[in-house]
Amino acid sequence: MPGTVSGQKLSVKLILIFCFLLFITQANADSFSGVNLSATRIIYPLNGKGVSVSVTNNQDYPVLVKSEVMNESQEEAPFYVTPPLFRLDSRQRNAMSIIRTGGNYPSDRESINWFCVRGIPPEADSVWADNPEKSAEPRKGNVSVGFQVVVSSCIKMFVRPEGIKGNSADMADKILWKIVGGNVIASNPTPFYINIAGATFNGAEINIGKGYIPPFSEEKAKLSSGFVSGKGTLKWKIIGDYGERKEQTTLIN
């Protein structure tokens, strides 16, 4: 039927357009992800006066750097970042300070927040991106990147009470594992957030919660429907305070 053929052609065209837009968006998102932080996580002492972290612009053009601290509900957390907004030139690095301004945090366990940084590329009319350097060459006007994609880079920021000592990576042997009703259950009896980078059970990949186990809590991972045994080998990696990864092997009986 002519209508059916026309509809099929339209569907194919829409799919191709969608794939093209997805490719363009991803390509530009990747190109704007060149604003990098000097750490993969931040440990903030509960009663500390502040911590510092650096950001580097790996792009060939200046960006506006905007940063903030968010809680797990994606709301503003009681921390101030200075400078909160600044221009960062190409291939340059700048330090930022994070200072707590309030909030009630427990003294017997870690709390989690997120430190987020956005590298905002210039638009054609961005005055802040105008090249200030004097040159014998004719002035070319403002730097412009054309297609605009703003990418946020967020890392975990753990608020750690003074009474909690050591590195979270050293807590691996304290995590308890068991199988209940087709799920692997991970119990964390420590005051640390236990961060996990990949896990497999009997060779099959599993996802444990959000990738971390909160203090004094449990998280679970669903096993494949074909799993019938009540035991197996769990391989996983724990991430430490400095981003280091330690591979672990646990036999679950």
UniProtKB/TrEMBL annotation:
Compartment(s) where it occurs, according to its Swiss-Prot or TrEMBL record: Periplasm
Positions of the Pili assembly chaperone C-terminal domain: 187-245
InterPro entries cross-referenced by the UniProt entry: Ig-like_fold, PapD-like_sf, Periplasmic_pilus_chap, Pili_assmbl_chap_C_dom_sf, Pili_assmbl_chaperone_bac, Pili_assmbl_chaperone_C, Pili_assmbl_chaperone_CS, Pili_assmbl_chaperone_N
GO CC term (a single one): outer membrane-bounded periplasmic space
Signal peptide: 1-29
Similarity remark: Belongs to the periplasmic pilus chaperone family.
Protein name in UniProt: Molecular chaperone
